[in-house]
Amino acid sequence: MDLIFEQVLAGGEIFRDRNLLRHDYMPSSLPHREDQIKRLGSILAPALAKDRVSNLFAYGKTGTGKTIVTRYVLERLQRKAKDHGIALNTSYVNCRLVGTSYRVIADLCRTLGVDVPFTGLAVGEVLDRLRNALRTRNSAFLVVLDEIDALVKRSDDDSLLYELTRINESLSDGWIGLIGISNDLHFKDFLDPRVLSSLGEEELIFKPYSSEELHDILEERSKIAFQPRVLEEAALRLCAALAAGEHGDARRALDLLRVAGEIAERNRESRVLERHVREAQQKVEHDRVKEVLASLPLHSRVLLVSVLDLEKARSESSVTGDVYAVYRELCTAASVEPLTQRRVSGLLNELDIMGIVNARVVSFGRYGRTKKIRLGVEARAITASLGEDQLVKSLLSYAPRCLHKQQHLNA
Q1: What is the distance between the alpha carbons of residues 382 and 305, in angstroms, rounded to a whole number?
Q2: Residue 345 and residue 183: Cα distance in Å, rounded?
Q3: Nearest CA-CA partner of 350 in 287, 304, 396, 294
């Protein structure tokens, strides 16, 4: 143990600073996102002249640079405002972590120096405090709502977005500008047209990185994160290729490279090789599935248990209608109000995008189309992760009656 601790204290032979490979690190430059940076900068620049800016909707798959580009531009915008004595406030809220509309508005109030209790007030009262703070400060307030889709999908309600997009109508001094970020390319389909027209005044699309682009990103980070001549070029290219093959995800590429370095370090080897990347791929994949499953909202968890039950009961893939029937029964058993079949179809699309289920569209000619649903991860990974939630744990041991009836009819 002492040898391990001393090796870390001495700085190690692999890393200079492994934290520079984490995706929340803000580098001095963002390769292959220059166009998005310029576009976002030009949209937000009028705030320096105290003019209101258009609300913005940015979307693209996970790891395509949406969050880091937004924070990069806001950081520099705020720095420029400070240099010129311009009143400009910014706030970043991850809607998936914050969880509720109340806590989102409370976070915004605290950024403006308004004290709001953790709970206990009506949402309308907290909104009034936010409006009053904007009037009092007479300043621009740029708000980033990251993973904005989680806010709506959790409650199936976009009323908060409606209130925030309309808040400027009641202000003569001071204003708020919204930047919504989503991984779901179809999220806009679920928004009220009035919200969409206000929030989507400007759009910014982030396409997945190519293998060469990911290589450039990793190469730039590795120069400052690793010791000289430690990282084999083949290992670097393998990280980029593996991540490019899975939606061009820069976060995944960085995680692979960091974990590969940590594996080499633990094995007391002096270089990071391709085999370390292969080993890191297995570890990162396991951790990713566990993290994704743990962060799923309630209805997605119940839906996943429905697919799991169907897969246990039959060998072939299940259609959307069967999944929805089991889902409704599980919701009843858990005393949860079920979502509509249209919303459930949207949740299945999300689970498919994340690779948790495989949803394949099948055409029946003039009888229409449906989806064939199968699990995309091991059943034991689902039971292990979801079993920590007491409500879902009870559903894992529940036997849906609709499945037994169907099996009896088939017999």
Answers
A1: 8
A2: 17
A3: 304
Where are the alpha helices (H) located in 62-158, listed in sequence order?
66-83, 95-98, 101-111, 123-137, 148-155
Residues composing the chain: 411
Per CATH, 34-206 and 296-410 having the same topology is answered no
- What is the residue-averaged pLDDT of the chain? 85
Cα–Cα distance for residue pair 125/131, rounded to 1 Å: 10
Residue type, 102: Y
Asked if 60 and 253 count as a contact pair (C-beta separation under 8 A), the reply is no
Mean pLDDT of 333-352: 87
Both tokens assigned to 345: 């179809």
Q: What's the average model confidence in pLDDT over 386-391?
A: 79
**CATH for the stretch 209-293:** 1.10.8.60
CA–CA separation, 276 and 125 (whole Å): 55
Identify the CATH class of 34-206: alpha beta
How far is the C-alpha of 226 from the C-alpha of 28, rounded, in Å? 17
- Sign of the Cα torsion 271, 273, 278, 281 reads positive
Inform me whether the pLDDT recorded for 196 exceeds 80.
Answer: no
pLDDT in tens, 9-48: 555 688 888 999 998 899 999 999 999 999 999 999 999 9
Sheet containing 175-182: order of strands: 88-94, 140-146, 175-182, 56-60, 202-206
With a CB cutoff of 8 Å and minimum separation 6, the contacts of 247 are 61, 62, 63, 208
Residue ranges per structural domain of the chain? 34-206, 209-293, 296-410
The DSSP secondary-structure symbol of 209 reads P
Is it true that domain 296-410 has CATH number 1.10.10.10? yes
Are 318 and 372 a contacting pair, CB within 8 Å?
Answer: yes
Give the distance from CA 174 to its chain's centroid: 30
pTM of the model: 0.72
The per-residue b/e assignment along 158-167, b for 16 or more CB within 10 angstroms, e otherwise, is bebbbbbbeb
